[in-house]
Design a protein that fits this description.
By secondary structure, this protein is α/β, with parallel strands linked by helices. The chain has twelve helices and twelve strands. The protein has a seven-stranded parallel sheet, with helices on both faces. A five-stranded parallel sheet has the order 2-1-3-4-5, sandwiched between helices. Helix 3 links the parallel strand 3 and strand 4. The protein is globular, with a radius of gyration of 21 Å. The two termini are 27 Å apart. The mean pLDDT is 96.
């Protein structure tokens, strides 16, 4: 069986060749081909039965005559869900859950930094200025209300850490009747997002990008939030109307924002978000952790063993729902 590995982007998102070698040693009966460009992927995909990739485009899919399964190294699979693939019987799985702990810790890093105004201290450090008076009022997380939009693997990990910090945790999810992590006080349906926004001191976006969630947070939603509240987005940039967020942050509609994802990446150097004193920007790194590619390859290997045995795969994506 031929397996196409095509994971190429910026350096941190390109699979190390050593991981492909390791997979080949684990599965010597199969032929692993590591494509380092779309042209190479196009030349190799025709007789591939499996693709380990998040970069399969419509032209590549049209050339894939034997493809039965795609496993994405990422949790989000929006780029894979174009019409032809969605209409096919090719199974798509993702790496949901792999990044959950890392993303959750990143969320609370941002929450603590915003609450204690670390961004002011860091900027003044560069100027060799002791900004004690400028930092002013800070707060602890304990006792505050955490509202999570999306309660999948990542949202659930965030919820558990919120409970550990002593926060009052509530969430919005598509299926509010599904089990929630212990300690979550309320789970609302998506129609009650406004209620969650108005009640929360910290709002964390952890929902998938679907047609329903594009532009989920704009000026209207931000104005529902408390002026002392923070917005944290570690999901997808397009969940937020970015120019409206910048305008509301500049006006002080909410206290601040921690942003790891953006509508267009990298974030435009001319974006007003860079210069806002109540914003912390991280470069889409919340899911990274040490030995990351070991974990990604191990997850794929576990699913490949299931595929070999004809067993149900885990993390199968609902191509209609988008996650």
């Amino acid at each position: 069986m031929k397996i196409l590995v095509y994971i190429v982007s910026e350096p941190v998102w390109t699979i190390p060749p050593s991981q492909v070698v390791r997979l080949q040693r684990l599965f010597p009966r199969h032929a692993f081909v590591n494509a380092e460009s779309e042209e190479q992927a196009m030349a190799e995909i025709a007789d591939a039965e499996v693709a380990f990739s998040s970069l399969i485009t419509a032209p590549l899919f049209a050339a894939a005559k034997r493809l039965r399964w795609i496993h994405s190294p990422a949790a989000g699979v929006g780029r894979l869900l174009f019409g032809e693939l969605c209409d096919s019987d090719v199974v798509v799985t993702n790496s949901s859950g792999l990044h959950a702990r890392s993303v959750a810790e990143h969320v609370f890093g941002l929450a603590i930094a915003l609450s204690r105004r670390f961004q002011v201290a860091v900027r003044r450090q560069i100027e060799h200025s002791f900004a004690k008076d400028e930092i002013g009022h800070v707060r602890v997380l304990h006792g505050h209300r955490l509202g999570i939009v999306g309660l999948g693997a990542i949202g659930s990990a965030i919820a558990r850490l919120g409970v550990a910090f002593g926060m009052h945790v509530a969430a919005v999810r598509r299926h509010p009747e599904a089990p929630a992590p212990e300690g979550v006080e309320k789970v609302y349906g998506t129609s009650r997002l406004d209620e969650l926004l108005a009640a929360s001191d910290y709002v964390v976006l952890a929902a998938p990008l679907t047609p329903e969630t594009v532009g989920l947070i704009g000026s209207r939603e931000l104005r529902l939030m408390k002026p002392t509240a923070f917005l944290i987005n570690i999901a997808r940039g397009k969940l937020v109307c970015e120019h409206e967020l910048a305008e509301e942050l500049a006006k002080g509609t909410i206290a601040g924002a921690g942003l790891d994802v953006f509508e267009h990446e990298p974030l435009d150097p001319g974006s007003p978000l860079w210069d806002l004193p109540n914003v912390i920007i991280t470069p889409h790194t919340s899911g990274f952790f040490e030995r990351y590619w070991d974990a990604v390859a191990d997850m794929f290997a576990d699913n490949l063993r299931r595929y070999e045995r004809g067993e149900p795969l885990f993390n199968v994506v609902d191509k209609t729902a988008g996650y």
